[in-house]
Amino acid sequence: MIEFAHASLALLTRDLRAVARSRSQLYSSLLFPLMLLALLGTGVSSGLSPTSPRILDGDYTSFLAPGMIAMTALFSSTFSSAGFYRDRESGLLRAMLASPHSPQTILFGKSLGAILIGTIQALAVLVLAVIIPGIDLSWQYGWLGGVATVVVTVLALNLMLSGLSLLLALKIKTMQGFHLIMNLVLFPLFFLSGAFFPLDEVPTWLEAIGYANPLTYAVDLLHYASYADSPDGLIGPLIDGLVLGLLAAFLFVIGLRRAPRAV
Amino acid sequence: MATAEADIANPQLHALLSGASFVWPGGRGVSDIDLSIRRGEIVTLLGPNGAGKSTVLKMLSGEIAPQRGHVSIFGEQHGPNVRRRIGLVLQEPSTDDLMTLQETLQLHGRLFGLRGHELDRRCRELLESLDIGDRADDRCETLSGGLRRRVDIARALLHDPDLLLLDEPTLALDPDSSQAIWQTLHNRAAHGTAIVVCSNDTVEAEHHADRVVFVDEGRVLAEDTPSSLTSGLKSDALELDWPALQDVDLDELKRWDGVGDTIRTDQGLHLTVDNSAEIVPRLFQTYGSQVTGIRIRESSLRDAWFKIVGRPIENGLGRKA
Fold first, then answer.
1. If you classify domain B2-229 with CATH, what class do you get?
2. Cβ contacts (< 8 Å) between A17 and chain B: which residues?
3. CATH classification (class only), B232-320
4. Domain coordinates of chain B in residue numbers?
5. Distance from A95 to chain B by nearest Cα, in Å?
6. Contact residues on chain A for B98, CB-CB shorter than 8 A
7. Per the CB < 8 Å rule, is A91 touching B98?
8. 263 residues of chain A, pLDDT tens digit each
């Protein structure tokens, strides 16, 4: 167990260091959501004057903030998987897998880095959303509970995405193929997650797809904890937490179990 | 079976492949490989690209398990305790551009359970022994191919393995880097590490290996010391550019005194002879301008390969005449 912890810590340290040295990755992961908040948020708030009761006071920028937190986790997960491919192509992953540790330990250590980096970056967006004037988060159950819920949600979301990325990366041999799948699958899922528009006011068929979408439960929980001023119209933390938690654990465990010794 | 059990119990025997076979999807692979690697010896698996050398290495490293036959390392099946005693150098340099040399070794050392001052000391000593101590804090992206290869070697040696597996460690390297790497490998072998090297370089194999294993099309074709493999050869080797070589000329040549093995090649003919100073003038006297080029050298492992396999070790498809 101690050796497992040491190996995981060594891999985590290495991945954190690698991200710290990839300045472009760091900046883009923060700048892109901020850009969307500033441009899309302001544009829709001013140009379309949304009247949905779920968009409080027609302030679309604030409504968008929890979705941007989820999106940052999504981007971060994609970047981390690119690191998996880089390590595989450079042979470094093979060298790591030749160590005494099981493939599960090595991939767990690598995923730990992805999860932590994704969580830190997503929470950085939350901090910026709190600091930026004009973004109003209600924290309906208090900011302490709200922040704790956001942290747990983002952790679970990153765990789920990390497991999914692992499964895809073990199946898809090239980074280009991986990005293609991510773009084809994850972006539509993200658009239908309630991050950009409330799902309870869209046509039934779209709503049905939205509720079959795992990301919906993460975005709903983020809205519940930070943005919304009442639980009305939201799925609620119990179902959100259950779906997200079970799916995250399932995908992560399956991803690790599929890990081969030879890559 | 009794012999195999005795072999497994032999502490001098670091690795044993017995009837090991593995076929990749697509059909390539190795078949019925028998191989034993003893403490302190350098064994070269010699063969052209695609011969199956890397597959044998992967079975030894535990990356793949044989589909038939068995592999035993230090008398055990593969597992964490076995992997702890193996060092692996892959065919391509496998470093992360964003990490420094020191960080690369530190990560590897920690994965092998090394920590603290002991890890620092080993990193420092290895980098210095491979003449890259002054680059310890440089990022790997700043290193040449030769220096990256030295980092790979340092990483594989860091945990002081008893079995070192290297896939073409000096491929495309400058002479200084090759020399530094071989020097390190010989030092390790002298201290008891068993070393297995995959290569298609006959010169390196002849100079550095204690034992050479010819691997071709997934099978072991011969296995012996370089001197034994070359002992039956005539002293000189001739490579003739002879595009219009006829069977009748070849039959005539084979009857000449002092001519040994003759093998057709893409360019013409490869043959070994007792004394090139006698044969070459006679060749030109008899066949004149038909022979458009000639290369003469001392017979070597390359010619032993020619003789046993029937074609050059390069990918050319010659056939035994």
1. alpha beta
2. 98-99, 103
3. alpha beta
4. 2-229, 232-320
5. 7
6. 17-18, 21-22
7. no
8. 888 999 999 999 998 888 888 888 778 888 888 899 889 988 998 888 888 888 888 899 999 999 999 999 888 877 777 788 888 888 899 999 999 999 999 999 988 988 998 899 999 999 999 998 889 998 988 889 999 999 999 999 999 998 988 888 888 888 888 888 878 888 888 899 999 999 888 899 999 999 999 999 999 999 999 999 888 888 989 999 999 999 999 999 998 988 776 66
